[in-house]
Amino acid sequence: MFNLRKILLFIILLIFVILPLSSLKAVPPQSPVYVLSIDGPIVPVVADYIESGLQEAEKNGASCIVIELSTPGGLYSTTQKIVTKILNSPIPVVVYVSPAGAWAGSAGTFITLSANVAAMAPGSRIGAAHPVSMEDDSALSDVQRQKLTHDAAAWIRSIAENRGRDPKNAEMAVIESKSFTDTEALNAHLVDFKATNLNDLLKKINGLTVKNFDGTITTLQTDGPIKYFPMSSAQKFLFAISDPNIAYLLMSAGILGIVLELYHPGAIFPGVAGGISLLLGLYTLGTLNAQLSGMLLVILGLVLLASEAFVVSHGILAVGGITSFVLGSLMLFSGNQMGLTINKGVVFATAFFMAAFVSFLLAAVIKAQKRKVVTGVEGLIGEIGIAVSDINPNGIVLVEGERWQAESKEYIAKGEKVVITAVEGLTVKVEKIKEGGSKKND
């Protein structure tokens, strides 16, 4: 009877506990959605950031990667690198022009259209993707403009066709620099969705099937955890100084620091800080494809300004240096692609400040040169003394409590006041002055 009870108990456990548990399968963890954020010009550090984000997402089995984008444009070469990475990514890429009011201008248009899924926030816009900024377009010949325009138009058509978007409307963003609102872009089949925020976007694309360039089909699973992938500290710093205006101000501050060090040797800090700022500015301008001729003119301006401290030119070198600096500044981004420029107001304000600063330094140097020497034997010139003996032509005078051998071209009686006119070795040249006289050159 006892064994029968054990057998019945075992059967009950087998039916209601063991068998149900054995049929359960481990639920795999949901794949994360990686989110990158770009708010600023498309510069080389952005390409590195996107590349590292794609690698990290692939390594951790992300379902897709979302790039929140707001940019006025950037470098054509950097844009090509980013688009190539997105097109060849094994993980689906979603580009979301956000937040509300954001702009995917110029380079941003190419990046948005290259994504597997393109979306825009309310009030955002896309387009104006002409490869040369309008204000600098005159710097290029007609043939150069046509080549750049036709190449960019063919490229954006190719991207749009392969992503199933309207190539004609995409081409208009390049040929005619046309911009589209979020609603217009959706109706023109340039983007796939309008979304109020990131969560709204992820809900709308969850379960969506996308096709990669290699033909593979992927179903988006965007209900998993969201993992934000920020720039590294080094990338944040490089991105911050990659704005043309900030790079220009860094270079200008560096020039001022070096000039100050040359005018006041031994100050140390202005020279060190100026050197670092100048190198950072020149490096950043180099990565932004600034014109070499413009950079050389700016450097020439620095040399001329520094030379003013060693060559008496009555300000001619300083004027030439400021002129060279301004001309070089205006040429830095002449003919630059994708609209990277330096604000002309920043250029002229910096030039004015630099001219005022150098003028102040020159005035201080001139004042110091005119100031009477007050140390050493030269400091005796102009001092008043008393003859302690007759001077005819030699004698002794008392100056500031010290006795000096004196020589005069005229007879000076003991007790008369004299003024020192020159010093030769240990002998002072003196002249008689009237009672109540004062120092010469006082």
Give a written overview of the molecule.
It comes from Thermoanaerobacter siderophilus SR4. One of its GO terms (molecular function) is peptidase activity. Pfam families: NfeD (PF01957), NfeD1b_N (PF25145), NfeD_membrane (PF24961). The chain has 442 residues and is α/β, with parallel strands linked by helices. The chain has three domains: 200 residues, 2-enoyl-CoA Hydratase, Chain A, domain 1 (Alpha-Beta Complex), CATH 3.90.226.10; 128 residues, no CATH class; 50 residues, OB fold (Dihydrolipoamide Acetyltransferase, E2P) (Beta Barrel), CATH 2.40.50. Helices cover 47% and strands 17% of the residues. It has 14 helices and 16 strands. The strands form four sheets. A six-stranded parallel β-sheet has the order 8-5-3-2-1-11, with helices on both faces. Strands 12-13-14-16-15 form a five-stranded mixed barrel. α3 packs parallel to α4, α10 packs parallel to α14 and α12 runs antiparallel to α13. It is elongated. The N and C termini lie far apart (132 Å).
The percent of residues in helical segments reads 40-55%
Query: Which regions have little confidence, pLDDT < 50, spanning 5+ residues?
Result: 23-27, 133-138
The tally of domains stands at 3
What is the number of E strands? Answer: 16
Which whole number gives the mean pLDDT? 84
How many H/I helices? 14
Q: How far apart are the termini?
A: 132 Å
Strand order across the largest sheet:
8-5-3-2-1-11
The CATH first-level class of the largest domain comes to: Alpha Beta
Major β-sheet, in short? Answer: 6 strands, parallel
Shape: elongated
Strand coverage percent:
15-25%
Run of helices and strands: HEHEHEEHEEHHEHEHEEEHHHHHHEEEEE
Radius of gyration: 38 Å
Structural class: alpha/beta
CATH fold-level topology of the largest domain = 2-enoyl-CoA Hydratase, Chain A, domain 1
In CATH, the homologous superfamily of the largest domain goes by the name 2-enoyl-CoA Hydratase, Chain A, domain 1
